[in-house]
Amino acid sequence: MHIAALTPGFAGDVTGIDLTKPLTATQVAAIEAGMDEFAVLICHDQNFDDDTQLAFSRNFGELEISSGGEMAKPEDRRLKLEMADISNLDRNSKLRGADDRIRLNALGNRLWHSDASFRAVPAKYSLLSARVVPGTGGNTEFADMRAAYDALDDATKAQIDGLVTEHSNVYSREIIGFPKEDYGAHNQDKLRPVRQSLVRTHPVTGRKSLYLSAHIGTIAGWPMPEARAFIRDLTEHATQPCFVHAHVWRPLDMVIWDNRTTMHRARRYDDLNDIRDMHRSTVRGDAMTAPQQEAA
Question: How many domains is the chain built from?
Answer without folding.
Answer: 1
